[in-house]
């Protein structure tokens, strides 16, 4: 099936059209998803989101909701799934929001599927003439997605969750080892200077 057959696909908000300036009477403040908030493996990095001031209320269709699949429209076309922790962020036009309408496809499976290297290669092959390496709604909608039983989709979701958790733990372990290395080398240097 084509992605456009199982989901609505829309670009994010063109920020310049709604950006407030100091002359505006009403200013609405939001937090915004940005390219730097996305980990290449398809997760939102923990941290502070950029603030966006708008001259009017932003439509709900441009704000993240639980189970939204968000795809970066520029290389490397990273895709992520929004959970309840990251609701109500503005989705800028550098992303597409994919909202699943076919209940036989789990949003987590669609996000995982779109993050596969074969899908990213497909997008690159379609965009081969483009210097910028960006894609659009039409190309995203033309992606053929394999239909799996819901149980298999759930198994893939769990495997992906465990992979992400393991990656986080390994990164934390590396950070701690780096601290130990720095401490140990500093202790050796201090010890050397005592013998001088």
UniProtKB/TrEMBL annotation:
InterPro entries: Restrct_endonuc_typeI_TRD_sf (IPR044946). The keyword Nuclease applies. Residues 145-179 form a coiled coil. Keywords: Coiled coil, DNA-binding, Endonuclease, Hydrolase, Nuclease, Restriction system. It comes from the Bacteria. Gene3D superfamilies: DNA methylase specificity domains. SUPFAM superfamilies: DNA methylase specificity domain. GO terms for molecular function: endonuclease activity. This is Restriction endonuclease subunit S.
